[in-house]
Automatic annotation (TrEMBL):
This is Diaminopimelate epimerase. The active site is at C75, C231. InterPro entries: DAP_epimerase_DapF. Pfam families: DAP_epimerase. GO terms for cellular component: cytosol.
Amino acid sequence: MSVPFQKYHGTGNDFLIIHADEYVPDRGALAERECDRDDGVGADGILYLALEERFSPPRVVMTLVQPDGATAPMCGNGARCAAEWAMRRTGADSVMIDTQAGTLRADRTDADDIIIEMGTPTFDPAEVPVRADEPVFGEEIEGLDVTMVNTGVPHAVAFVDDVPDEFFESEVSRSSSDAIDDVDLETIAPPVRYGDAFPKGTNVTIASPDGSGGFRQRTYERGVEGETDSCGTGAVAIAVVARRLGRTDADPVAVSPPGGDLRVSFNERGNATLAGPVEHEFDGEVTVESPAEQ
């Protein structure tokens, strides 16, 4: 028994999209198998989407299952991929995305990018969540100076000039935007990701100023348990933290993960928006257990 999927990516953050009506008895097991880049199709998660065209603009109910089999409440690039998927089916240039972190509006821009509202970021320890009495700004946690913010999911944000020397793979100038490439993210991130301070774990995002008010980005994602080519909530986290700490006054803030270029803006309500390209890669099918095999 098999179900069809479509493969999309937003700046390298890639997902299998399966219509929510398709029968998948164990979504977690399917994600663990098919997100594997050696033995499966390879992806940063599986998006299950239900399209409700009776609304104006159309609505999409989005559920993200990550490679570890767990469900994530929000994914910025995943939501942008969901929006592109829905727009292609309806012909609409605006859609509403229902996520576990709230309902978000997405629009197609004149440049054919997808821009999506990302809600209101919060530093509140109870909402991040992080075990702290006050918001965490530049405090040492598990060997790394981080600022904690929730942009739909928790992020521990650090800038390269705060990364200890032992976590660089070579001697580099911290003022260089290339310094981020030499950070040993696979070593420095896991202790923070699983730190006792975080009751639900955290993503770990490193930023390096690009010299023009923007930033380069690398993110170790919770649920993927490794670095991804892009992370939309991480890009928003960098922009929010950088503005809060006085590291930039740009708007939009350009953020460049390894997979491409994103733009983070702030609207009149104080909500962040995330914009960038989305691409449809290919279609295929994956095998699932039939009812008789369960």
